[in-house]
Amino acid sequence: MTCSSVQVQPYLLEALEEKFTLHKLDTTTEPDKAARFLRTHRDSIRAVVGTAFVGADAELIDQLPNLEIVSSYSVGVDKIDLAKCKEKGIRVTNCPDVSTDDVADLALGLMLAVSRRLCPIDRYVRSGLWSKLDFFSKQFSGKTVGIIGPGNIGMAIAKRAEAFGCPISYFSRSQKPACINYNYCPTVVDLAANCDILVVACALTPDTRHIINRDVIDALGPEGVLVNIGRGPHVDEAELVSALLEGRLGGAGLDVFQDEPNVPEELFKLDNVVLMPHVGSATVEARKAMADLVVGNLEAHFLNKPLLTPVV
Amino acid sequence: MESIAVLMTKPIYSYLQAELEKRFKVLKLWEAQDGSRFLEDHNQIIRAVVSDGGTGLSPELMAALPKLEIVSSFSVGMDKIDLGKCKEKGIRVSNTPDVLTDDVADLAIGLTLAVLRKLPASDRYVRSGMWKKGEFKLGTKQFSGKSVGIVGLGRIGQAIATRAEGFGCKISYHSRTPKPESSNYTYYPSVVDLAAHSDILVVACALTNETRHIINREVIDALGPRGVLVNIARGATVDEPELVSALVEGRLGGAGLDVFENEPNVPEQLIELDEKVVLAPHAGSGTEETRKGMADLVVGNLVAHFEGKELLTPVV
User: Fold this and answer.
1) Is A301 a catalytic residue?
2) Which CATH superfamily is domain B101-279 in?
3) Closest chain B residue to A259 measured between Cα atoms?
4) What residue stretches are annotated with the D-isomer specific 2-hydroxyacid dehydrogenase NAD-binding domain (chain B) (predicted)?
């Protein structure tokens, strides 16, 4: 099988090497070597392990005639051509739920870090500038949190924010019975206008691409904060950057970007922005649980048992 | 009331000073060339002192102000004011409880998440361009579901517990006596036992003679190499040199610290440990909203006193 990614946790690699013949493929930094390898081994590859960064696009699928399953070491499957997999009878699995808590924790961490300026004040103390501190931060407790996509992760975020006395509003295509105590907003602009902190927690689909656009950002406003723990393409990144630089948006906590690992460098000088290298599920605990799911799904497939967490 | 002289010991907050100046004759001790002389010149008229948690009311200052009736502190902490002596001399004391409870609790959780998930280190990793060279490799730890031990289950301790419960954390605590209304939390009569059973230990108690260095070597060792200490109370509740050596030697996993024994000085070794330690400049109550609320309480207590009414938030 191929394991196409830049880096994967050693625990996962060991588990895969133990049970299968593992080929590690770096399609991003060594594309020529990867292409030659695929031509040589195309017939023997029956499974691909993808990640949030590199999955199995149409091109890769076409090169592997005996591909049976793609097991993704991620929750998001936007890097896998699901339609093509379905068409060719290729199974796809992901890692839902095991990282829900960690992603929700990071969303709260970003909200607190942006509101209370945790990164700048840590830097101030370390630079000996304590007595020169000349700003107060903003309160987090009691602020209205708006959630786009009240799925597992969205609801986990809501539960945590409620413990801080935050009223919850949400947007989704239809009202959800589980959100009876939350304020439903029929449009994203509406939601943005009615919250202090807007969190993107929905899946990335053609419909949700650039769901955060100029209108939404303007509605969120100069006191508003955007938190993105979804996918970079959820946000019109150019609009976000100019809004932050011009002060039309109050702040942002971002774990994902349009073109990872590239991050707009104009954001680097801003103190009202917290930037994370896509680490929503990067805890030791979650990564181990995800690795167990990847291996478990592959084993189930090759033993002709029901898949643990199938997407296709 | 404009003729009533109120002494400010230090510049605290411009909004507070402006509000005091609207109502009282404000004397600024820090602007005096000769502090003792200044006090001598004005000691017959100074009837109130406004100070903060770090400065309080020193014994010398109390002795220099024979007409002092009230100390209104811009803080909830009272460790720098001799409350017994104030009571003896009939001097009223007020503080600023409740308005800052949420912010301090928020910071406690913020520091916990920042330490476990290495937020400042990750943010620096992106800003320095390192992400382009490779994935962030430092193992970060889950917060949800962890055991949180709270030393001091007062207003702030309880607010921290409520927030941690939102993350599915198990709550334990230590206080002088168990709290019957918190029967769903586990009580430990010994801080060492609390530390041994906690992944994260949060100091949220007042600083008193009994709680000085309540976090000592034994407690730190019990918390252990995977444990995290968070201090949003007072620096002196922790034996700082022991804390530093435990972190340097890896006997303690990490720390989130808003307070230090000798602010604004922070031990150099903590400055160097920028992945397992997150530092804040005593910013627990440092939001615009709360600082304004605290200032309004300071002024409100003084006005109530001089109008012969009940103090809003009396301590003595």
Assistant:
1) no
2) NAD(P)-binding Rossmann-like Domain (3.40.50.720)
3) B132
4) 109-284
pLDDT-derived band at A111 (thresholds 50, 70, 90) equals very high
Looking at A33-42, B6-15, B109-118, B140-149, which range is the least confident one? A33-42
Residues of B labelled as active-site residues: 234, 263, 282
Strand partners, B170: B147
CB-defined contacts A:B, below 8 A: 170
Pick the CATH number of B5-97+289-306 from 1.10.287.1080, 3.40.50.720, 1.20.120.140, 1.10.1740.10: 3.40.50.720
Count of H-run helices and E-run strands, chain B: 12, 12
Closest by Cα among B112, B113, B117 to B139? B117
A102 neighbourhood in chain B, CB within 8 Å: 142, 144
Cβ pair A101:B168 closer than 8 A: yes
User: Residue B135: CA atoms inside 13 Å, Cβ hemisphere, count?
Assistant: 18
Q: Does the pLDDT at position A7 exceed 80?
A: no
Q: Is the peptide bond before A261 cis (omega within 30 degrees of 0)?
A: yes
Tell me the three state secondary structure of residue A26: coil
A78: Cβ contacts below 8 Å, ≥ 6 apart: A55, A203, A204, A205, A231
Q: Is B157 in contact with B204 (CB distance < 8 Å)?
A: yes
Nearest CB neighbour to B122, from listed A165, A260, A277: A277
pLDDT band at A27 (very low <50, low <70, confident <90, very high): low
In one-letter notation, the amino acid at residue A13 is: L
